[in-house]
Design brief:
single chain, alpha/beta, Rossmann fold, seven-stranded mixed β-sheet, binds S-adenosylmethionine
Amino acid sequence: MWDARLDYPPRINCVNAHRTPAVANLLDSESLSLAEDYVYLPDAVRQAREDALVSLGEAPSNGVCAALVFLARMLDAKAVVEVGTGAGVTGLALFAGMNPAGILTSIDSEADWQLEARQAFTAAGIAPRRFRTIAGVALDVLPKLSDGAYDMVFVNGDKLEYVEYVAQAARLLRSGGLLVLYDILWRNLVANPRNEDDETVIMRETLQSVQDLGDFTPLLIPLGSGLLAAIKD
Ligand SMILES: C[S@@+](CC[C@H](N)C(=O)[O-])C[C@H]1O[C@@H](n2cnc3c(N)ncnc32)[C@H](O)[C@@H]1O
């Protein structure tokens, strides 16, 4: 009997081949904007986004935060790894969806950011036992985490290390766990083969590596600067 899963995901070159021909009913930028702003975020996440926009000039988009709430809730995630704690915006979104007893392990090379994130978590009423912030370079820390112990791995760290993060996530996730990579369409540069800056090339290699691993079922979600969600077999 034919097993569709054996042919999935389809083996395509992420960049050069197999483009969907232009059709009239693809979403335009207004529809994508509506999708970004349709969801009302929990107050703590919304506030953290606004604070980050003021202090940093950037923050994960509304739609991306909503997707993280949704995905963590769908999994009833009890153990999540985050690469790139930053100001804690995405951490708060993950907490909003996770199981009420779930624990977030969040890694960042900048201890100062983690201090800010911990303050944001505490202000949002998250008990300290639920967050484990680890100051360090992700590729030093991830290998020390346990195999198959996590429901979800969310990546928002150094773009140039994304391929290695995927390899680590494949080890860390349980069967049925979810890998989520942010910035995968990096500044709208990834889809155009004429762009060849380092981050763009690594994002393409990352997309390819998820397919090549063969034990992930991926979905590319056009929110923010692109989310790749991939369920581990
Ligand atoms: C875009 S910010 C993350 C934003 C965060 N998710 C939030 O919601 O506020 C990227 C973060 O990755 C951290 N970072 C960069 N390179 C790293 C590395 N090699 N290992 C760990 N963290 C890294 C930076 O210090 C920065 O805080």
